[in-house]
Automatic annotation (TrEMBL):
Binding site for Mg(2+): 33, 221
Top-rank EC class of the record's enzyme: transferase
Function of the molecule: Catalyzes the condensation of isopentenyl diphosphate (IPP) with allylic pyrophosphates generating different type of terpenoids.
One Pfam family linked to the record: Prenyltransf
Organism of derivation: Motilibacter peucedani
Alphabetized InterPro entries for the sequence: UPP_synth-like (IPR001441), UPP_synth-like_CS (IPR018520), UPP_synth-like_sf (IPR036424)
CC per GO annotation: plasma membrane
Positions annotated as active site in the UniProt record: 33, 81
Record-given protein name: Isoprenyl transferase
EC number(s) on file: 2.5.1.-
Entry keywords, A to Z: Magnesium, Metal-binding, Transferase
Binding positions (substrate): 34-38, 50, 78-80, 84, 202, 208-210
Amino acid sequence: MGLRDVAYAAYAARLARRLDTARTPHHVGIILDGNRRWAKASGEQTHAGHRRGADKITEVLGWCEESGVKVVTLWLLSTDNLTRPPAELGPLLRIIEDVVRELAANGRWRVHPVGALDLLPQETARLLKDTASATSDRDGLHVNVAVGYGGRREIADAVRSLLQEHAARGTTIEELAEVLDVEHISEHLYTRGQPDPDLVIRTSGEQRLSGFLLWQTAHSEFFFCDALWPDFRRIDFLRALRAYATRQRRFGS
């Protein structure tokens, strides 16, 4: 281990010791951005960047687990990404499938798909559903994998599901309009029953949500990190937790 590695390890340990564990976020959302730019900067093909980014996921989830985070939502593939050329999308879907299998093989984590599974290839959707079923009784870290996810699509799907549910009960549109509130829609989101994210981390220096958990992030805190996702370090994660712990959450006020 070189001098730089020793200094890094010491700094990371000091950051971890100084964290206010009483203010650890319960739910962390992560926008894994920068794989393609990492590949370009490294002179690699795009799929190599996606593979390198996939290799980072289990490590980061381990940091979350060590820090006391209970729920993590990983945005792996947006609905917009589904329009990418087949030469890029095909390998990316295979990498995501490998990630899901690896998360399930952990033995402790509960894996829950978040997204419009009907937009995905049949084999990808089936793997996500089977993994959710196989890990549903685990009580470790709850990992949402957002695949084929778009915030506007989620809200539209929630409203559609709500209308279908009430139509099956014989409720008229007028009757529903009289009682409809935000909780009715929340009960039909992909993340229904889960707490909203306390903290959202986006890598690569971009400072926007791009439609990530539009409904659920109304009162979330945000941390934008310059590092590309494959280069995301433990000290970057700890800095995000430190920034969150120092903020006075106002929940919209």
